[in-house]
Amino acid sequence: MNLLFGRTVSLQLRLTVAVMLSIILIVGDRFTQGGTLIRTSLHTLVSPLLYLASMPYEAFNSGAKSLQTREQLSEENSALRRKQLLQSEKLQQFEFLQKENQKLRALLGASAREKSTRLVVQILSVHSNPYSHQVVVNRGTIDGVTESQPVIDEMGLVGQLTQVGTTTSRVLLMTDITHATPVRILRNDVRTVVEGIGKINKLKLSHVPHSLDVRIGDVLVTSGLGGTFPEGYPVAVVTELNRDEGLPFAQVYAEPIAQLDRIRLLLILGRTSQESLDHD
User: Fold this and answer.
1) Verdict on whether the full-model pTM lies above 0.85
2) Which CATH superfamily is domain 118-269 in?
3) pLDDT tens for residues 105-116?
4) Domain limits of the chain?
5) What are the distances in angstroms from CA 141 to CA 50, 93, 148?
6) Distance (Å, rounded) from C-alpha 10 to C-alpha 68?
């Protein structure tokens, strides 16, 4: 080999020999098993080195994919929760609108509700005072919210805004002892009022006559009276009824439909276009 590639051998001869050896190797690899065996052996020897060399890249790529997947899942989950909340606001009025349509008197009202503004908010903290049922949300005047706007979750009515700041606001829950909600019984349209009694899972119907047609299991929805809460949103279900004639009024209690002890995302309802015209 030293003679072949020595300085005394011409370049043309070395090129010819190299080309011939290349052709022999190509033919041998194509038509014999020896080339395959050698190639397999070399690949087996080199594979651990390739694996070790690719480990940092694979680790980085796997970590990046994991972070991207978790972030993507988190964003998708948040988007789906917001979409669910927005859709729930419409579903909550389905039964009401169905009943109203049967009476042929809610086409204009339904149109006004569809034009109302809605804003998804997140709870930042819960009021530490056990006698005051309030939560703080992450929206304020810069987001266009004002005091007394109604607030719902995916199940039903939650309360209303109070003490609106620049970037945060307080929501007074309907179970607070200072809160009262005009409602009507969905079964028979009888109007009444539910009041908070300081218990997160209990409301009381105020001043209920013994003759009032109310039953356990009746669904209470907002009546629209007073102008604060739009009509037709689920509020509570009657769970207790005591018609003691020795008392001036029947004792009626209800359980909120909204899950007030586990709320995280809420929906602030804006004033409808119809209401705006009425106030103007």
Assistant:
1) no
2) Rod shape-determining protein MreC, domain 1 (2.40.10.340)
3) 444 444 444 456
4) 118-269
5) 60, 28, 13
6) 61
